[in-house]
Design brief:
194 residues; alpha+beta; four-stranded mixed beta sheet
């Protein structure tokens, strides 16, 4: 919740926008996140090895720059990709994302809190600084349900590394030249093979 309210969107996205079914009001939306490598297929396809290798090097570089040893950075790369692969696997395809009816699931905040076990939503909303919303639009309910199941074999240490990576990567353009250069090497050069 702290990262969502400041600089990054780990695990999922959340925000307020006009309610698609009633533009006179705003609604709280929860959705699958934008993946760092872009499309989910870059995570799941063997044909994307070149971009995935560049992405691994980007993650490794960021962890090395904040003081991790080479071995620790390699473990961090594994943890980040383990979680991001799960997120990609749970994510809706481009085709399904185009279906506005499948991506508009309005429910009460209480219904949402009681229906999805990804995290303790009461603590999340409290930390985020808002009470549990009267209504919430969950854009991809299947994503949240699938991710909740997939996260059962992810350790707390792996989650911490994933969250740390999200913070470092989001902040990289604003840090020292080494971070800025690493960020540009991936997002300005390596991702052009996509």
């Amino acid at each position: 919740a702290r990262l969502h309210s400041s600089i990054a969107n780990p695990f999922f996205g959340v925000g307020v926008q006009s309610d698609l079914m009633n533009s006179d009001i705003n609604a709280l939306y929860a959705s699958q996140p934008d993946l760092i490598m872009g499309d989910r297929d870059y995570y799941l396809s063997e044909e994307s090895k070149e971009i995935k290798d560049a992405y691994k090097e980007y993650i490794r570089t960021l962890f090395t720059l904040v003081g991790y040893s080479a071995e620790q950075a390699d473990e961090a790369v594994k943890a980040v990709l383990k979680i991001e692969d799960k997120i990609a696997d749970a994510s809706y395809s481009r085709e399904v994302l185009r279906d506005s009816h499948k991506n508009y699931n309005k429910m009460t905040g209480t219904e949402w809190v009681n229906s999805n076990g990804l995290l303790d939503w009461n603590i999340y909303f409290d930390t985020f600084g808002v009470p549990v919303a009267e209504n919430i639009v969950v854009k991809q309910t299947g994503f949240f349900n699938d991710l909740a199941k997939a996260m059962k074999d992810v350790t707390l240490d792996e989650q911490k590394l994933y969250l740390e990576y999200n913070l470092i990567s989001a902040a990289a353009p604003y840090l020292s030249d080494d971070f800025v250069n690493a960020n540009f090497d991936f997002f300005g050069r390596a991702d052009k093979v996509i």
